[in-house]
């Protein structure tokens, strides 16, 4: 049991590590609003080194551009909290890793920063696989968190779910 993270996150991370290890699949992450929580959850699990290749915490737009090659035009057009941005982040993660699958997360954790179109609690996710047709897999979720920590907790759980085979 972990004292660092909630049991539900650690339990789900354990499933992600065990199930991906069984099929020999490596994962990588690009995290913005979760700030590395998904990677932290995975590394709580013994044996995670067999599964987790790397994680990028690209909190700023500059980091998304420099580390993951997300274009400034894409961010200016759609915003950092958009399916287009997280899809580009996931693609950049695959390009700069040895992973078979990448998950990217960006969102508005609050308490500030929300807009009428993207209120606090808006989080976008994308999953990209090295093998396959390359079709974008992404979704936008609206979490109703009482505070920043709750939104980040829910986003971490949702991202871990995307890493299950």
UniProtKB/TrEMBL annotation:
SUPFAM superfamilies, A to Z: CinA-like (SSF142433)
InterPro entries reported in the protein's UniProt record: CinA-like_C, CinA_C
A Pfam family assignment: CinA
Boundaries of every CinA C-terminal domain copy: 12-164
Top-level taxon: Bacteria
Alphabetical list of Gene3D superfamilies matching this protein: CinA-like
Coiled-coil stretches noted in the UniProt entry, renumbered to this chain: none
Protein name: CinA family protein
Organism: Tsuneonella litorea
């Amino acid at each position: 049991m972990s004292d660092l993270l909630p049991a539900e996150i650690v339990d789900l991370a354990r499933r992600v590590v065990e199930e991906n290890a069984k099929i020999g699949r490596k994962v990588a992450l690009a995290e913005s609003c979760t700030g590395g929580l998904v990677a932290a959850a995975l590394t709580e699990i013994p044996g995670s080194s067999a599964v987790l290749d790397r994680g990028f915490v690209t909190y700023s737009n500059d980091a998304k551009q420099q580390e993951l090659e997300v274009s400034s035009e894409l961010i200016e057009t759609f915003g950092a909290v958009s399916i287009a941005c997280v899809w580009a982040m996931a693609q950049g993660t695959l390009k700069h890793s040895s992973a078979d699958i990448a998950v990217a997360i960006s969102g508005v954790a609050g308490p500030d920063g929300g807009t009428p179109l993207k209120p606090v609690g808006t989080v976008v996710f994308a999953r990209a696989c090295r093998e396959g047709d390359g079709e974008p897999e992404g979704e936008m979720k609206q979490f109703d968190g009482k505070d920043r920590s709750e939104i980040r907790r829910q986003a971490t759980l949702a991202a871990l779910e995307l890493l299950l085979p």
